[in-house]
Structure formats: structure tokens, C-alpha cells
Design goal:
The protein has 290 residues and is of the alpha+beta class. The protein has helices spanning 22-26, 44-57, 66-79, 122-127, 154-165, 209-220, 232-236, 268-283, and strands spanning 2-5, 8-11, 29-37, 40-41, 85-92, 109-115, 129-133, 171-174, 180-183, 187-192, 195-197, 224-226, 240-245, 249-256, 259-260, 286-287. 29% of the residues lie in helices and 27% in strands. The two termini are 21 Å apart.
């Protein structure tokens, strides 16, 4: 595997960052997860845009422009002969001192890893997932805005640990007001009486690229789509539930906090959206080869 670091490519065993990098010391940085399907990078511009939005929010100057970042992503995929894979794009504040002061970090670092990922066991996509609500709440907007896809993911990791300790792969996180925000790494949707609902971004949901794609596909299919505040009660009484994310794609949910959702099996709306999503990913994106 060839890893891109600041304009150069390194073998996996030789890819290094400084122990004084503030991304390592303090989680001071941002990242994106991107998918490649059928020799194309899916939603490359949207992911790159979100990277720059996150950077602007934390006053981090990316040492390349949009076009240069996108070219580097495609070239990294090409060098690793990726056709179907996962790309991790990371920007750190760079090497500095042991103090917090970001002004001591003179050169931000950009890292691109193009490989594979399997977030959940394949059989879960067929039978559906059981998830729980955990005590750890989503970060406050006034503390660390959930819209920023930062390297500081401890909030999500703590919630993930709570899910794992309960024997689940994923967890629902509520916000400080008790409304559903999202899961530890995925956005959440429910279907009720032919209507698709997902929490609003203001509730603490990430600006999910896959979330947006699914909402567009649902609208094109004639489904009404809304973003109201949702409670656990709304989830328990849904006809269907599923999660979305770049790595997860679309994952059916069949039980929440011990309550069976709908029929207890992946529902027809979820199945239709999965089919549409896979068709779209195979046919669109930035070409890697030729």
C-alpha cells in the first residue's frame, strides 16, 4: 500500500508522522471517509467540500486547494490499484510543541490512505441490526460542533464502547435535550406510514454525504422526507429503521432498546433505497482510470 503524506508517497511500513503532531497530541485536525466503487470515487467533490468546511470552522489552513486535494485522492487510488475501496483523508494541524497553542504548528499535514474497510459483518445487512440508546450524549454545538468532522472522536468512541459492552455493534446518541442526534458513526432514518424521517442537523446530526444521497433518492421515488426532532418513542414505533454512512452504506435496524421495529425484519422501503443506492454508486463518480 502507498500512503500519501504531504505530496510524497510512502510504503505502508515507512509512513510516519511526528510524535509532536497536534493531530496525535490533541486530536487537532479533521478527516473524511470516501468510497470508491467500480473504478470511480463516489461523491468526491461533496466530501472535499465538507473537508474544507470543517477546516474553516477550526481555522485550519489546508495546504492545497480543492482541485489539488481531489487530484491527490484520485492519484492515490490509482497507485494502489483501487476499484472498490475506502479512502481516509486526514488533515492535521501539523508538528508543534507540547503546548496547546496551534500557532506553534507551522505546516499542516495532509494524509491519504486508500484501502479497504468492512464496518459491519455482511450477514447484518441481510437480517438487520439490533442497536441501543446509550448514556453518552452528543457534543453540544457550543462545545464542539457535531458538524465538524474532527479527529477528536472520543465522544463517539465512548458511546461505541457502551454499545459494545451491551453486545451491540452500534448505538443511538441523544442530544442534551433528549432528542435523537445520530449513531456513533452513522446517521439514522425511520419510515412511518410511507414517510421518511431523519433528525435535523440542529439536533447534532453530522452533515452526512450518504444521508443527503438517500434523502434525494427517496424524494425522487415519491417519498415525503422530513427532518423533525425525533424521540426514542418515535423510533420504537417506526415501521422501518436504517442507518446511513459512507463506510456503512445503508444498514437495516430491526430492534432498538429491546423493542422490535415493524415486522422485525428489513422493510420494503429500506430494501428499495438500498437497491437504488447501489445502482447509483456503480454508475457515478470521479473516474480513477482513464
Amino acid at each position: 500500500m502507498k500512503i500519501y503524506i504531504d505530496g510524497k508517497y510512502y510504503d505502508e511500513r515507512n509512513a510516519r508522522i511526528s510524535v509532536f503532531d497536534h493531530g496525535l497530541l490533541y486530536g487537532d485536525g479533521i478527516f473524511e471517509g470516501i468510497r470508491a466503487y467500480n473504478g470511480r470515487v463516489f461523491k468526491l467533490k461533496e466530501h472535499t467540500d465538507r473537508l474544507f468546511y470543517s477546516a474553516k470552522s477550526i481555522l485550519l489552513k489546508i495546504p492545497m486547494n480543492h482541485a489539488e486535494v481531489m487530484d491527490a485522492i484520485v492519484e492515490t487510488c490509482r497507485r494502489n490499484r483501487v476499484r472498490d475501496g475506502y479512502i481516509r483523508l486526514v488533515v492535521t494541524r501539523g508538528a508543534g510543541t507540547l503546548g496547546l497553542n496551534p500557532n506553534r504548528c507551522k505546516n499542516p499535514s495532509l494524509i491519504i490512505i486508500a484501502g479497504k474497510i468492512q464496518l459491519y459483518p455482511p450477514e447484518l445487512y441481510q437480517r438487520g441490526m439490533e442497536i441501543i440508546t446509550v448514556p453518552t450524549t452528543r457534543n453540544l454545538h457550543s462545545a464542539l460542533n457535531p458538524a465538524i468532522k474532527s479527529l477528536n472522536y472520543l465522544n463517539n468512541i465512548l458511546a461505541k464502547i457502551e454499545a459494545n459492552n451491551a453486545g451491540c455493534e452500534e448505538a443511538i446518541m441523544l442530544n442534551a435535550e433528549g432528542f435523537v442526534a445520530e449513531c456513533t458513526g452513522d446517521n439514522i432514518f425511520i419510515v412511518k406510514e410511507g414517510h421518511l424521517f431523519t433528525p435535523p442537523l440542529s439536533a447534532g446530526a453530522l452533515y452526512g454525504v450518504t444521508r443527503r444521497v438517500v434523502m434525494d433518492l427517496a424524494t425522487q421515488s415519491g417519498l415525503a422526507v422530513s427532518e423533525p426532532n425525533l424521540t426514542r418513542y418515535d423510533l420504537f414505533n417506526a415501521d422501518e429503521c436504517f442507518l446511513t454512512g459512507t463506510a456503512a452504506e445503508l444498514m437495516p435496524v430491526v430492534k432498538i432498546d429491546g423493542r422490535e421495529i415493524g415486522s422485525g425484519k428489513p422493510g420494503p422501503v429500506t430494501a428499495s433505497l438500498v437497491t437504488q443506492y447501489h445502482a447509483l454508486t456503480k454508475a457515478s463518480g470521479e473516474p480513477i482510470y482513464g
